[in-house]
Every structure is written in C-alpha cells, then in structure tokens.
Write a structure and sequence with these properties.
This protein is an alpha+beta fold. The protein is built from seven helices and 17 strands.
Length: 249
C-alpha cells in the first residue's frame, strides 16, 4: 500500500468515527501519542471492557476507553499561550469585570478553555489556557514544582538583606520562599528577577509587601518551560507538539 493510499484509508476511517487508539488516548489528555503506545503495549488500556495491546488498533469515538479504571474523553485538547496585558481579569465568572482574558483568545478555538492558574488584573505576562484537566492539575499542584519567573519593578531598590529574606522565607500567613532572586540589571536594583514554584494567589506581591515594598509592575516571563519569545503583549499562540509533550512529562 503506497503512502497516498494509506492517507486515504486513514482519512476514511477517521471520517467514519474510527481513530487510532493512541490518538484517542492523547486527545484525552493522558499523555503524548508516543507514551500512549507504551500504555497500550503494557496492557494498561481497555476498550469496551477488554484489554488491548495491539498498537495499530482503531476505535470508535463512541467506544468506552479506560485507563486505570477511568473513562477517557477523546475531545480534542487545546493549548493556548497568551502574553497577558494589564487590565484584564483572569477569572471566568466575574460579572463585574470590565475586561476578561478570554476576550483576547476568542478567535483561538471553538472549544471552551480555562486559564491554568491566575494572573491578577495588573500583572502581565504568560498565561496558559487549556481544556486538559489532567495537565492543569499537574501544572498547578505545588508538588510538581513547576517553575515560574517574574520580572518585578519596585518602588525602591531591593536591599541585599531583603533579597536573602526572600530566598529563606517570608511570612505571608505562612512561610513562603523564592527559589532564586537576582538583579537583572546590577545598575538598577529596583528591578528584580524572581523564580518561584508556589501557586498561591498573589504570592509575589504579598512577599514584597510583607518586606515593605510596593510593586509598580509585575510581569511573568517564564512558566513551566514556556517563554514570551516572539509573543507580543496581548497576543496568543497555540503550543507546539514538542512544548505539549514537555509539559506532560
């Protein structure tokens, strides 16, 4: 069978509601297609109550596919990265919010997606949206230690002692410590780079306020391996397959 014929057969099968089992699993958000192949070969996937180990298996989108006893949903998973501007609210259900982050990604997809964590109204930078619940749990749970980096502009220079305090722990109702703190520009110590994995709401602002500083500008420049490179403020892009696989690891 030549490649052209193979593509035609694949298109016909998927048009009839039949898709490769590894694609079904990947669409459900469990893992990448490559990792799905291993789950299949290890006998960890069942289709309509029967374990399946054949990597070439095609299934109906209406089939009951389970992994570890959990029924999978083959809805197409969407992953969108936004460079959030100031003035937009991250919550999905605030009737009093003037501008919502979802307004900025209306043209991105037809699926309903949700922000992974939050950035407050005045904070700018990276915000990820997805309908992949498994990945959202992984990225937001502190036990996974997903790194976030912020560029902080302060109302006065950060002292060396306060920089040490940030890494040793600041009491904001509980003791929270940054993973690293540095001056991006040694000549301007009102600007600070801060790496942290805590997912607590407004944690960066609370830490600096506890030390007597006011934040003039706060920008998230790195999130779980994703950066703002070639992504202007207020714009969005879909993640690449490589980036999605990295997030799922």
């Amino acid at each position: 069978m030549n490649n052209r014929h193979k593509r035609a057969v694949k298109k016909t099968a998927e048009g009839d509601g039949m898709i490769r089992l590894n694609k079904y699993i990947a669409n459900s958000g469990v893992c990448s297609r490559r990792d799905a192949d291993k789950l299949i070969s290890d006998g960890e996937i069942s289709v309509d109550g029967k374990a399946v180990t054949d990597l070439g298996t095609k299934v109906s989108t209406r089939a009951k596919v389970k992994y570890k006893g959990r029924l999978l949903n083959p809805e197409r998973k969407v992953y969108i990265l936004l460079n959030k501007p100031a003035g937009y609210v991250s919550t999905m259900d605030d009737p009093h919010a003037g501008k919502l982050v979802t307004d900025l990604i209306k043209s991105a997809c037809s699926e309903r997606v949700y922000p992974v964590g939050r950035l407050d109204k005045d904070t700018t930078g990276l915000l990820l949206f997805t309908n992949d619940g498994e990945l959202t749990k992984k990225l937001t749970h502190p036990s996974h230690g997903k790194k976030k980096v912020y560029h902080v502009h302060l109302n006065r220079p950060l002292t060396k002692n306060d920089m040490i305090s940030l890494t040793e722990g600041v009491d904001i109702g509980e003791l929270v410590a940054a993973d690293a703190v540095a001056y991006p520009d040694p000549e301007d110590k009102t600007q600070v780079g801060m790496e942290i994995h805590s997912g607590q709401n407004r944690v960066v602002r609370k830490m600096f306020e506890a030390l007597g500083y006011k934040i003039k500008k706060l920008d998230r420049v790195y999130f779980a391996g994703l950066t703002k490179k070639n992504l202007p403020r207020g714009k969005w892009r879909s993640l690449t397959e490589k980036e999605i696989n990295i997030l799922k690891r």
